[in-house]
C-alpha cells in the first residue's frame, strides 16, 4: 500500500508539464535481483522492484520505486537525481545518481540502514547504466549492502 507521502510525490511527478521540445522521457523500471555483500540467510535477494521515472531534457529526473527490502518489508523510494551520458566512452553508457526518502525499514530492521528514523531514511543511490533505444539495464550501488540489477523500458518520449 502506498503512503500519503508516496501518493503526493507521484501526483507531482505525473503533473510535471510537458514542453514542446523533445527530450522528456517517462520510463518503467523493474529490479528482479539484489546481490548482498553479506550472505545473511535472512536477506531477500528478489525485491520485485517496480518504478516509474520522469527525466527532463536537462537530464534531471524524479521517480518512485516500490519493492520488498532486504528483510522482505514493503518499501518505497521517492527520489530526485541527475543522469550523465558517457558518450566519450560509449554512446550507450550513463551514470545516474539519485537521492531521496526511503520508507519501510521498521521494527527490528530499523538500524540496518543509516539515517533511518522510525522507518524513514535518506538514501543516495549511484548507478551505472547501459541504454539501447527504449531499453536499459543498470547496476545500482546500495551503500555497503550490495548492488541491485534493474531493467527499464521508456514508455514515452516527447
Explain this structure to me?
- The chain is mainly β.
- The protein has one domain: Porin (Beta Barrel).
- The chain has one helix and eight strands.
- Strand 4 and strand 5 form a beta hairpin.
- The protein is globular, with a radius of gyration of 16 Å.
What labels describe this entry?
158 residues, eight-stranded antiparallel barrel
Q: What's this, in brief?
A:
Residues 1-20 form the signal peptide. By secondary structure, the chain is mainly β.
Q: Provide the number of structural domains.
A: 1
List segments where confidence is low: pLDDT < 50 over at least 5 consecutive residues: 15-21
Q: Biggest β-sheet, characterized? A: 8 strands, antiparallel, barrel
SSE class: mainly beta
Strand content: over 45%
Helix content: under 10%
Write the layout of secondary structure elements.
Elements: H1 4-14, E1 25-36, E2 49-55, E3 60-68, E4 74-85, E5 93-103, E6 120-132, E7 135-142, E8 146-157
Signal peptide: 1-20
Protein name: Sn-glycerol-3-phosphate transporter
Keywords: Signal
Amino acid at each position: 500500500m502506498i503512503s500519503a507521502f508516496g501518493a503526493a510525490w507521484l501526483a507531482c511527478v505525473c503533473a510535471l508539464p510537458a514542453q514542446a521540445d523533445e527530450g522528456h522521457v517517462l520510463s518503467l523500471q523493474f529490479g528482479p535481483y539484489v546481490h548482498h555483500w553479506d550472505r545473511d540467510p535472512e536477506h531477500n535477494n528478489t525485491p520485485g522492484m517496480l518504478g516509474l521515472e520522469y527525466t527532463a531534457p536537462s537530464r534531471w529526473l524524479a521517480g518512485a520505486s516500490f519493492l520488498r527490502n532486504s528483510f522482505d518489508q514493503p518499501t518505497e523510494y521517492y527520489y530526485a537525481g541527475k543522469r550523465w551520458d558517457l558518450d566519450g566512452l560509449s554512446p550507450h553508457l550513463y551514470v545516474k545518481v539519485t537521492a531521496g526518502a526511503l520508507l519501510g525499514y521498521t521494527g527490528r530492521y530499523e538500524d540496518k540502514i543509516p539515517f533511518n528514523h522510525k522507518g524513514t531514511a535518506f538514501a543516495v543511490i549511484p548507478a551505472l547504466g547501459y541504454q539501447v533505444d527504449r531499453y536499459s539495464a543498470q547496476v545500482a550501488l546500495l551503500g555497503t549492502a550490495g548492488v541491485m540489477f534493474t531493467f527499464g523500458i521508456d514508455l514515452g518520449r516527447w
